[in-house]
Amino acid sequence: MQPLALTLGEPAGIGPDLALTVWHRRAELKLPPFYIIADAEFLRRRAARLGLDVPLAIVPPAAAAATFATALPVVLLDVAVTAEPGIPDGSSARAAIASIRRAVADVFAGSAAAIITNPVAKNVLYSWGFAEPGHTEFLATLVQGATGKVLRPVMMLWSPELAVVPVTIHLPLREIFEHLSTELVVDTGRIVARDLSARFRLPRPRLVVAGLNPHAGESGALGEEDRAIVAPAVSQLVAEGIDARGPLPADSLFHKEARGRYDAALCMYHDQALIPIKTLAFDHAVNVTLGLPFVRTSPDHGTAFDIAGQGVADPTSLIAALRLAARLAAADGRSPPAAS
Most CB within 10 Å of its CB: which of 130, 144, 205, 264? Predict the structure, then answer.
């Protein structure tokens, strides 16, 4: 049985704070064993700043589960981290990227059951020369390098109240029209239906598809995209045996009664998906990457530079990400050890 691999994330942010905090509360929270990929001296400094008594054990992944009850297992990162809370520096991007690379290598090697990624600061990565739009796309690149397979991973934000999937993700609004296609909606729906069935154990997932335009285009009066792009995609998904409905007006998809009629909502752009889930589940939603050959989850929040190192960051989303990763990994046949 393998532990979970937790990446360092942006070292100047709250990711390290949360990792130290949840390990410190491990008995109370009954968390599945995990290890963090980090610079041990950096973690010692951060723990001291937070006033947390967190013994560290530098171990290989295979020894992490046995160590977890008495010390936070640390798989060493070959980068000396010098960033201070709230102040990214030259070590920030290198450490964040190296931690992700090691986590992917570990899960492919069978040393980790799943990956949980702490938040990164995209502007810090971009200034270092990072070429991908974000975590999701970088993971797909790493998988392609390891397997030769080209994947199109899908980002899902999940909570007990609502699960949403943005079909287009990190795009300016003006570019959505040129990127949105029937093929993209169909591919996204297939991946969502497959992973909801295989990993979330939903025998026949119910999908709703939001319209792009107000009132789902109002029969073309408010734009032709819903009739020309979205509706044919829904028809194709239904023809393939997927329980899908739409396009439906987005403004009436997210109230309580409507949410009871579906398992996931496919939305046409980033904010159409993220605004409702962050309104309903801001502190406990989890980012899940679908379409990968391994489980990856992440807290649904950013680096919060303004409160890093202060001991006030809310660990609820990281706790949810760890628990969901363990649940989905078990469905994949990668059973983590029992919660400690």
Answer: 264
Going by CATH, does the domain composed of 1-151+292-340 fall within 3.40.718.10? Answer: yes
What does the alpha-carbon distance between residue 305 and residue 308 come to, in Å, rounded to a whole number?
Answer: 5
CA–CA distance, 243 with 239 (Å, rounded to integer): 9
* pLDDT for 320: 96
Give the residue carrying structure tokens 């287009």: 168
pLDDT tens across 152-209, in order? Answer: 899 999 999 999 999 998 888 899 999 999 999 999 999 999 999 999 999 999 999 9
- According to CATH, where is 3.40.718.10 located in the chain? 1-151+292-340, 154-290
pLDDT digits (tens, 9 = 90+) for 36-50: 999 999 999 999 999
Q: Give mean pLDDT, residues 275-280.
A: 96
Q: How far apart are the first and last CA of the chain?
A: 14
Amino acid at 168: T
Give, in order, the Cα–Cα distances in Å from 118 to each of 135, 178, 275, 284. Answer: 10, 32, 21, 14
Classified as helix, coil or strand, 2 is coil
Q: Please name the amino acid found at residue 264.
A: A
